[in-house]
TrEMBL record:
Residues 993-1032 form the U-box domain. This is U-box domain-containing protein. SUPFAM superfamilies: RING/U-box (SSF57850). Residues 12-25 have a biased composition (Basic and acidic residues).
Length: 1049
């Protein structure tokens, strides 16, 4: 069907030929409908209804002779005949006063506002030419089904712009467009039809005959209405600034359908039925284009509801919803990611956003000024969230209408989402040019709509998890993951798995599931990471701004920094607005709860894949799992697990109440399974985030009691009781080598989280028993103890060194005169060193405190691993060294202002160190203390005893035990001095550390760097026997000298 926009290039003759062809097509369909006939009344017999041939557009169209209807199979009427309602009260039907023909003439005259009677009153138009034609044909001057087509053509052929038709203009009708005229006729017909169907005094057969006649008449009105929408120049129309054709219907769609300027849904339904098999999309496309243009200009602060209402008015009709995905702008293949949200048919609707990055006008809702906070913006939060939630509801209705319209529109709707996802893959990268990808609001809105579609299979029992494909990425999947890092598959395995030629069949549930995964990945998951990075930048700038303001208050601000303050203020003001806008969306509790439900489903799906029985969650997972997971799991993109952990870390940091009421069964099982099972997740940093999740679970809710935490579930969940301790202790060892250049520093933060988890569950006797069980695995536990020792030594040394640096700079700055005499550059450099030392001291000391504390409670119940030859000497030396610093002369260099800012609590630290001494009070440990010639001093212990007693840090019994320990050490040292004198100088070949000591920290051969375990080391028996023989010889030689008589002169 020729589009009206292209008619301007046609000649008048071509335009006329197209018009006549359309009329012929229209009349053919109309004649087919008429072959059904109309029920006859007692006063009239049924006759074959003739159909007129196409009429000319001139003001005096030629009449065509009647012809019989085609005997082909009749077409069902456009609108089914309604059953008239039962009378409210019994009455005796009477025969109508008018015959059917006269009633039909009067009814159609009132509906069409035309007459074949010259004396018809206003606003009736007298159709003189048609009346004359009927006289010439000896036909009655009555409007009927037989003449209806000719009547309409005659009426619409009157040229309102011809001065010769001034008489008609006086009647007022021709001042309106033909579409408006036909729509008004349709409305009047519906009114007459309703009144007729409710008539209580007419026989049933009369009512049915009249209703059927009106129904058939309406079909012709609808047909012509559709044609004038497509070809507005088919008939002459009043010249107007208002565009004719589809734009007329667009404007009516924007109005309320119950108002005179609106368009009833039933009219649209009639249009869809009439043109469903006759290029309906040619009518719908300009409507969608016009509605989309209105939506493109809307924001959440302007009239965004009107275009939504107009679009839904179309989509509520399934036949129309089915053809909307056929419009040319549905999913433009050449559009970029950024263009899609503007030029695609639904793009502007999904683009309606509450993010100020997408819509700068949103910023005005949050006010200005650096002293704003969430409380000040509560009203804006409520308003934006309420509006966006409503938008999500309407978007769901839009998509749902299209998906339910049939398999083809459903497939095109899904393909649109897949296209958006593919074109926005760059959104998942750490650095991305925002002008090349779709905006946050566009992706955010699609994500929430997809989650609403997932609702039916996100039930708490996960009853439909088996419907989600486990082989979705096998072969040519709809989502390209060829560039993605896999959970644990090699490149060769991944390429072979995805390189299969046949794509796997995918059901609707799987489509929704993986689309939702993908949009979370490029959407909210990326926003969580960006928010964390943004807040880091925000606080750094805020810190610099605050420092300059302090200088301004002190009168030491330089002129150039005065300009910098103003620049910082403007920047912080914008950042504050951006922050509030972002938080209003990504911290919406309803959206977070929805994502929580979805990620629970994802975790269950992953656990079901690694469960050898594939029975989870109906049955618990049985440990241990196979050494290697299935290929279906191994080749999955790593971002699936990464997005899960990023979501839970975000929620536990910023909105723990979102998950507070849940059992967290899926999360706990998920973290336990993948922490305790080596090889299933090859990225140690992903596993570290699992441990970080458990750490945040141990923290109290904001402002609530310390025992009111999500971590309580770690003390009750059966999988946690079985797996938590071995999982975190093995992982403590595993993170020693992560493969990154930053692994040395990364491990401290990871181990801090582990220490907090262990500390939280330590009071639980079941977990303590699990620690004892782990200690029986001598090699792995000794490695754990060794690494704990290494960390403690490094952290305490670094932390206390940084405190000393802070002390020195503070002393320097307290000398006001000398400090003022320094150059600005020198002062700036020293201030920079101070800030760096402060930051590092806080980190090191916090971590050091936890490692010392862990040693204190572990040695209370476990001793043997701490007394092995590879550990005990280093442990004794480390404890002695730190004791000297805490109670010796160096303590004066650790006195700083506000020590609590660095978490430096020397009394607690001293108490924990002394507890370790007392816990390990046994011969092997005493000997190790005695061998420490560098730091051990009885006087230090006695001084520590006085501090402990004076500060009431230990009980009297504990102080007595400490003093007795010192006496034992002194006795051993005395004996050791005698033994050293006895042995004399030790040969060089007998000195040096054993390879076991090396392997406790590094599981590689020191000579070839190949993997090597302690169990693979072979004892050097020959060297041991040689050392023993040498000792015996040295002692025998000394004894011999002692018994020989002294020579005298």
């Amino acid at each position: 069907m020729q589009d009206t926009n292209d008619d301007t290039s046609l000649t008048q003759e071509e335009r006329e030929r197209i018009r006549l062809k359309r009329l012929e097509k229209l009349q053919g369909a109309y004649s087919a409908q008429q072959t059904q006939g109309s029920p006859t009344s007692a006063a009239a017999t049924s006759t074959t209804v003739p159909a007129a041939t196409a009429a000319s557009t001139s003001s005096s169209p030629a009449a065509s002779s009647p012809r019989k209807a085609s005997p082909e199979k009749p077409v069902q009427s456009a609108v089914p005949t309604p059953s008239p309602p039962k009378p409210a009260s019994p009455s005796t039907p009477k025969q109508p006063a008018l015959t059917f023909e006269k009633w039909q003439n009067e009814a159609l005259s009132r509906i069409l506002l035309v007459s074949l009677n010259e004396s018809a009153p206003q606003p009736m138009l007298f159709l003189a030419n048609l009346a004359q034609e009927l006289k010439d044909e000896n036909e009655p001057l009555l409007i009927s089904q037989a003449s209806l087509d000719r009547v309409l053509v005659e009426r619409m052929s009157i040229d309102p712009n011809d001065e010769a038709n001034a008489y008609f203009l006086d009647r007022g009708q021709l001042k309106y467009s033909l579409f408006d005229y036909l729509l008004d006729c349709w409305k009047r017909l519906e009114t007459v039809k309703l009144q007729t169907s409710r008539a209580k005094t007419l026989p049933e057969n009369v009512i049915q005959e009249r209703v059927q006649s009106l129904t058939d008449s309406k079909s012709l009105l609808v047909s012509y209405a559709g044609l004038v929408l497509q070809m507005p120049d088919m008939f002459p129309q009043i010249q107007s600034e208002t565009p004719l054709g589809a734009p007329q219907l667009v404007e009516r769609l924007f109005a309320d359908q119950d108002t005179p300027s609106g368009v009833p849904t039933e009219f649209l339904r009639d249009i869809s039925v009439r043109f469903q098999e006759d290029e309906l999309e040619n009518i719908i496309q300009p409507l969608v284009t016009g509605i989309t243009a209105r939506a493109r200009a809307a924001t959440i602060l302007t009239d965004w509801r009107t275009p939504f209402r107009a679009l839904l008015a179309l989509l509520v009709i399934p036949a129309i919803a089915a053809v909307v995905p056929n419009v040319a702008t549905w999913n433009p293949s050449n559009a970029t990611a950024r263009q899609l949200e503007i030029v695609s048919a639904l793009g502007p609707f999904f683009k309606t956003s509450g993010f100020c990055a997408d819509d700068p006008s949103v910023a005005e809702l949050f006010g200005t000024g650096l002293k704003r906070n969430k409380a000040d913006s509560a009203g804006a939060f409520t308003s934006i969230r309420g509006t966006v939630r409503l938008i999500h509801t309407l978007l769901f209705q839009v998509v749902n209408s299209i998906i339910r319209a049939g398999s083809d529109p459903k497939e095109k709707m899904l393909n649109y989402f897949y296209s958006v996802l593919a074109k926005n893959e760059r959104r998942a990268k750490m650095q991305v040019d925002r002008t090349t990808v779709s905006g946050d609001g566009f992706i955010y809105n699609i994500t929430e709509v997809l989650m609403q579609f997932c609702d039916p299979f996100m039930d708490s029992n996960h009853s439909k998890v088996d419907k989600i494909s486990s082989t979705y990425f096998k072969g040519a999947s709809k989502i390209d993951i060829s560039k993605e890092t896999r959970i644990c598959a090699s490149k060769e395995l991944a390429d072979a798995y995805t390189g299969e030629s046949t794509a796997q069949p995918v059901n609707f549930i799987s489509d929704l599931f993986f689309l939702t995964l993908g949009f979370h990945h490029i959407g909210v998951s990326r926003m969580y990471v960006d928010y964390k990075r943004f807040m880091k930048d925000f606080y750094e700038i805020r810190e610099q701004y605050d420092r300059l303001k302090e200088q301004e208050s002190a009168g030491t601000l330089s002129p150039e920094n005065d300009l910098l303050i103003k620049r910082y203020e403007a920047q912080l003001d914008k950042m504050m607005t951006f922050r509030l806008s972002l938080e209003s969306q990504i911290m919406d509790p309803i959206i977070l709860s929805h994502s929580f439900q979805f990620y629970n489903l994802v975790m269950v799906w992953l656990l079901r894949m690694v469960d050898p029985a594939h029975a989870y969650p109906r049955q618990p997972i049985k440990f241990p799992l196979p050494e290697k997971p299935s290929e279906d799991f191994a080749i999955l993109p790593e971002f699936i697990v990464e997005d899960i952990v990023e979501y839970f870390l975000f929620v536990l940091r910023h909105s723990p109440e979102t998950v507070g009421s849940s059992s967290l069964d899926e999360l706990i099982t998920f973290t336990m399974v993948f922490l305790i099972t080596p090889g299933y997740i090859k990225n140690p940093y992903l596993k570290a985030k699992l441990a970080e999740i458990l750490f945040y679970m141990t923290l109290p809710y904001r402002g609530q009691r310390n025992d009111d935490t999500l971590g309580i579930k770690l003390n009750t969940h059966p999988v946690a009781l079985k797996c938590l301790i071995p999982a975190i202790m093995n992982f403590y060892v595993e993170v020693e080598n992560t493969g990154r250049s930053s692994q040395f520093y990364d491990k401290f933060n990871i181990r801090y989280n582990i220490s907090q988890i262990l500390k939280f569950v330590w009071k639980n006797p079941i977990h303590r028993d699990m620690v004892r069980a782990e200690s029986q695995k001598s090699e792995s536990f000794v490695r754990f103890v060794n690494l704990l020792m290494n960390d403690t030594t490094y952290l305490m040394d670094e932390g206390l060194t940084k405190l000393s640096e802070i002390h020195n700079i503070e002393v320097e700055m307290d000398d006001k005169a000398t400090w003022a005499a320094q150059t600005p550059q020198h002062r700036q450099e020293r201030e920079d060193v101070l800030r760096t030392s402060q930051r590092q001291a806080s980190s090191y000391i916090a971590l050091g405190n936890e490692t010392i504390n862990m040693l204190s409670y572990l040695t209370e119940v476990i001793k043997e691993p701490f007394l092995t030859a590879e550990i005990v000497d280093r442990l004794a030396t480390m404890l002695d060294y730190n004791l000297v610093i805490l109670v010796g002369e160096k303590m004066s260099t650790l006195k700083v202002k506000n020590p609590e800012e660095y978490r430096f609590q020397p009394r607690i630290l001293l108490s924990d160190i002394i507890a370790i001494y007392l816990n390990l009070d046994c011969p092997a440990f005493i000997v190790a203390l005695a061998r420490d010639d560098r730091s051990y001093s009885a006087n230090i212990f006695y001084k520590a005893s006085r501090i402990l007693e004076g500060r009431n840090l230990k009980s009297v019994d504990e102080i007595v035990k400490l003093k007795n320990l010192v006496l034992k050490v002194e006795d051993v040292r005395q004996q050791g001095a005698e033994d050293e004198e006895e042995l004399g100088e030790i040969p060089e070949e007998f000195l040096g550390n054993t390879i076991k000591s090396h392997l406790l920290s590094d599981t590689t051969d020191p000579f070839n760097r190949m993997p090597l375990k302690i169990g693979d080391v072979i004892d050097n028996v020959e060297l041991r026997e040689k050392i023993q023989a040498w000792k015996m010889f040295q002692r025998a030689k000394k004894h011999q000298r002692a018994v020989e008589p002294m020579e005298t002169d």
